[in-house]
Amino acid sequence: MDIPRIFNISESAHRIHNPLSPGKLATLGAALRLEQGARVLDLGSGSGEMLCTWARDHGIVGTGIDMSRLFTEQARLRASELGVERQVKFVHDDAAGYVSEEKVDVAACLGATWIAGGFAGTIELLAQSLKPGGMILIGEPWWRHLPPSEEVARGCLAGSISDFLVLPELIASFGRLGYDLVEMVLTNQDDWDRYEAAKWLTMRRWLEANPDDELAEEVRSKLSSEPARHVACTREYLGWGVFALMPRIA
Ligand code: SAH
User: Which of 66, 70, 149, 158 could crosslink 153 through cysteines, CB 3.0-4.6 Å?
Assistant: First the structure.
């Protein structure tokens, strides 16, 4: 079981597999007012940067589930590097349908909401692992401007315009699902560049080291086309953010 190999290649040097800067990840951790020993579940935990740095900075404990063998291994290495391997655990598995045995204070899915068919389904899934009074974190794209055509939406790697909402609609939809939005950290165009442009150098270096690999042609073609796609589409039209939600009580 693994994710398509192209992602393990192009994102092998990323610590955060999203347009969230290390600074904004830290801002988010501080904004949530996490208590020492708080339990965090992270579905699609990638290379584990959120759990590992929050374990170091706020004393949280937690579990991350991710389908990439490489990212999960990197997460474990990062935990030892930061000296938090007794606080965090990384499991290589499919997170679809995952509900934790022990309920958690924070249940998160940052940039992998397809595991439950979109953000609404993912909120429903995460809610099943949540303690009363706990918080759900959803990392999700939104349209900065509506794309002028379906072609531009596909250029943003969306299936169609309807895959994402504009920010006021996304926020309104959390309310309709019965949640209060209690915090958020949004990313900007420079943050997108850190996520996307970092892939280009990784792909270039990988191509030099693996010219005869069966994916060399695909990586070559991506390295040629991705910068223009990114600046014409994703950078211009897509926003991204992490939204902290609590079930409405009144
Ligand atoms: N939350 C992390 C990673 C986001 S990228 C971060 O912010 O850095 C999306 C992640 O979802 C990748 O690490 C990918 O391996 C993982 N993934 C994709 N499908 C998955 C699935 N079905 N179950 C678990 N993880 C999955």
Answer: 158
CA atoms within 13 A on the CB side of 185: 20
Domain that holds residue 9: 5-143+164-187+239-247
pLDDT one-digit tens code per residue, 129-169? 999 999 999 999 999 999 999 999 999 999 999 999 999 99
87 falls within a domain: yes
Domain membership of residue 43 (yes or no) is yes
Q: Which residues line ligand 1 (CB under 6 A)?
A: 3, 16-18, 44-46, 49, 65-68, 71, 94-96, 110-112, 115
66: Cα within 13 Å, side-chain hemisphere? 28
The answer to whether residue 157 sits within a structural domain is: no
At 44, which CATH number?
A: 3.40.50.150
Nearest CA to ligand 1 atom 12: 46
Residue 53 lies in a domain: yes
In this prediction the pTM is 0.97
C-alpha atoms less than 13 angstroms from C-alpha of 12 in its C-beta half-sphere: 13
Give the DSSP letter string of 149-210. SHHHHHHTT-SSGGGS-BHHHHHHHHHHTTEEEEEEEE--HHHHHHHHHHHHHHHHHHHHH-
CA of 201 to the centre of ligand 1 (A): 21
Total number of domains in the chain: 1
pLDDT of residue 249: 87
